[in-house]
Design goal:
With 299 residues, the chain is of the alpha+beta class. It has 6 helices and 12 strands.
Length: 299
Amino acid sequence: MPRSTSAPARRHRPPPVPLVSEPVSHDGREVTEEEYWRDYYLESDVHYEWNNGRLEEKPVSDYGTFLVYAWFIELLRHFLRARPSARMVALEMGFRLVLPTGTVIRKPDLGVVRDDNPVPLQPLDASYRGVFDVCIEALSDKDRRGIARDAVTKRAEYAAGGVAEYYILHREPGHQAFYARTSAGVYVPIVPAAGVIRSLVLPGFQFRLDDLLTQPSPEAMRHDPVYAPFVLPGWREAEERAAAAMQQAQAQAQAEAQARAVAEQGMQQAIAAQEAAEAARAQAEEALARLRAELANRG
């Protein structure tokens, strides 16, 4: 009987992995404000703002601009830790502005709310119901539209809506801008003093324009007079206390050494005086002995 042979097992190829498709952008779509808050505000793949009935996709900044933004936000953290006078948010939190031209909902890259703002920022807020005191945008320069949105459109909206200060960050100084709102409701550039921008909304917060590009470390900034008042002040104070203690110890050791030297000198002088007295006494005794001997010979 012929031996039966089994057929070779078939190799099953795994099904092809579907390619990840790019998220579909709804930029420009007309939606109501209710639809925006419900369907698009918390969208995870694409972040949208709302401009008077139309979606606007938030552009993405390049890595160089992100580094400027990251350094700036860390500097602001240092300031608010040292001087807790405000709170900041950087989690795509939007706020609503009712303007003469219509209503907009903007999501600044960084927003600051002072503690004395009439609308406090609450821990469970997913959107801010007031007007930010400071708005910071990391400019995207991939196209003219992105530049115009931050440099022109949002500048006008934030000024009209009551944002007291507006900063535009970018890796190139030519695209950076820093504005303060006047009593007339318009922005004027903040004029740097010796290359340093100083905030009026956050008294004491300041930064050197060149440092937005060089991005010095906190260890370097804590010895810089521009940043020393609020960057790691505890470390600097500890160093100053340690240096003062060391100087005091050195001064005390020097004083003790001088005291020992004076004491040793005094002891040597006392010994010398004692030796001189003993020598004088010996001379006197010797003279007295000679006098007695002379008197004895005369008798």
